[in-house]
Amino acid sequence: MGLRGEWRAVQEAYRKIAEVYERANKVATFGNVDRWRREAVTLFLSLNGKTPLKVLDAGAGPGNMAAHLKTERYVVALDATPEMLRPNAIADDRVVGMFEYMPFRSGCFDLLLAGYSLHAATDIEKAVAEFSRVAEFQVVVSIGNPNNRFVRRLLRLYARYLLPRLVCLVAPPEVCREYGKIYTIITSIPPNSKLREIVEKYSSIIIFREKGLGSVYIYISRSKIA
Ligand SMILES: C[S@@+](CC[C@H](N)C(=O)[O-])C[C@H]1O[C@@H](n2cnc3c(N)ncnc32)[C@H](O)[C@@H]1O
User: Fold this and answer.
1) Fewer CB near the last or first residue (10 Å), C or N of the chain?
2) What pLDDT does 225 receive?
3) Is 178 within a domain?
4) Residue 172 is assigned to a structural domain of this protein
């Protein structure tokens, strides 16, 4: 399948899950999904003296990342799936577009947020490069791939057999099937150490933390070209 075909399959998945999205996430992460978003955003705010004014929420969906910014700000929500953007009442502007080809000028945002979206990029390095090009700071929370082989195997077993069944407790069968695709995602993304190297090519990492045994990572970085 080419790039376009692959992306269509991912987009189709997001269309199906939009309605029960956060409920399913809570079950899949044992209640941690929003705690990790909040941790990333509040950590950034506590480290950075200045309040970010112009914010890009990349892969914003319903706006669950930007919701943790309680200060006065202007937020643009970017997402490739209009169905995921539709319920977003947090953003001041909503833009349908791809990470890999951001329709924004370089350095035009103070802060880029990306919650549980980078792992889905068709080209992770291109997305990371674009994140750094358009914003001075990046705060990213994403599904990761643990470095430790034993933990990686455990996570794959969880994603393949248990996660879709847990999601079935709160969502219809077609949605459970879509969550089953997380297994395919984690088998195709780079290990967290490699992801860190990619990020370091384009920005200076301020914080890199793993959560849930490395199944999720949080990073805060500052663009090298800012
Ligand atoms: C799992 S949702 C995350 C929504 C929200 N940020 C959150 O914290 O829950 C991932 C979103 O990223 C979007 N997305 C994934 N890959 C993308 C890409 N390459 N370009 C733009 N949006 C993308 C999807 O359409 C989806 O709405």
Assistant:
1) N
2) 64
3) no
4) no
Tokens matching residue 185: 């995602």
For the stretch 115-128, pLDDT in tens is: 999 999 999 999 99
- Is 60 within a domain? yes
Question: How many whole angstroms from 209 Cα to the centroid of ligand 1?
Answer: 21
Residue 69 contacts residue 42 (beta carbons within 8 Å): no
Residue 9 is part of which domain span? 3-22+30-145+190-223
Residue 164: how many other CB atoms lie within 10 Å: 22
pLDDT of res. 1: 45
**Helices assigned H by DSSP within 2-113:** 3-17, 21-28, 33-47, 82-85
Q: How many domains does the chain have?
A: 1
pLDDT reported for residue 21? 80
From 14, 29, 37, 79, the mutation candidate for ligand 1 (largest count of ligand atoms within 8 A of CB) is 79
Amino acid residing at 25: N
Structure tokens given for 199: 């990020």
Q: Is residue 168 part of a domain?
A: no
- Sheet strands (E) in the chain: 54-58, 74-79, 93-96, 109-115, 135-143, 203-211, 216-223
Residue 79 C-alpha to ligand 1 middle, in angstroms? 6
Edge-to-edge strands, sheet with 74-79: 93-96, 74-79, 54-58, 109-115, 135-143, 216-223, 203-211
